[in-house]
Specification:
alpha/beta, Rossmann fold, 6-stranded mixed sheet, 3-stranded antiparallel sheet, 3 helices, 30% strand, binds guanosine-5'-monophosphate, binds magnesium ion
């Protein structure tokens, strides 16, 4: 079995600078408004932790987990919430914080799940925006980095539960079909 190789894509410094800018932009857009950030576990946990510390406005924090049927490297589109939302988001602005927006299926389903809680608005903030494989017209309202291709790990992103702890983002190469996804 070949050894997976990690190619640097985004450095820790690049990520931190961009997250700081994004934090300012989100703060300006929602100033004076009730805002709940909803992080999608597990992948968004690092991005979420960095982003909230760059905000200049008070926010509430919530996390959700979704279950997706089918292979793990592509979304099946059959997404559901694994638990009820713990925070009341009725009449508050909801900002979904996601690691990667890829096909867009996960977020599309998530938006319709969250709409049942009657928030004032729902927007999407993604650390990575991969538009190439998008199969719906969903766009990230906020995105740190557009990335064309490759399977990324680090900064919360995993490959078979590995690499989430890395502070930078890498493309993983030399994957074989026997490697765990
Ligand atoms: P989609 O937008 O296709 O429904 O699903 C996006 C999800 O697929 C992301 O939240 C992430 O969990 C996973 N994903 C998509 N691309 C990548 C990638 O390059 N690396 C990792 N680790 N996960 C990815
Ligand atoms: Mg995810």
């Amino acid at each position: 079995m070949s050894v997976p190789e990690l190619l640097p894509v985004l450095s820790e410094a690049e990520i931190q600078k961009r997250v700081t800018d994004l934090g300012r932009q989100i703060s300006a857009d929602y100033r004076g408004e009730p805002l709940v950030l909803i992080g999608v576990l597990k992948g968004a946990f690092v991005f979420m932790a960095d982003l909230v510390r760059r905000l200049e406005i008070p926010v509430e924090i919530e996390f959700i987990r979704t279950s997706s049927y089918g292979k793990e490297d592509t979304s099946s589109g059959e997404v559901r919430l694994l638990h009820e939302l713990g925070t009341d988001i009725r009449d508050k602005h909801a900002l979904i914080v996601e690691d990667i927006l890829d096909t867009g299926l996960t977020i599309e389903k998530l938006i319709s799940c969250l709409a049942a809680y009657h928030p004032r608005s729902i927007r999407v903030c993604a650390c990575i925006d991969k538009t190439e494989r998008r199969i719906n017209d969903l766009r990230a309202d906020y995105a740190c980095f557009p990335v064309d291709e490759g399977f990324l790990v680090g900064y919360g992103l995993d490959y078979g539960e590995k690499y989430r702890y890395l502070p930078a983002i890498y493309a993983i190469k030399n994957l074989t079909s026997e490697d765990p996804k």
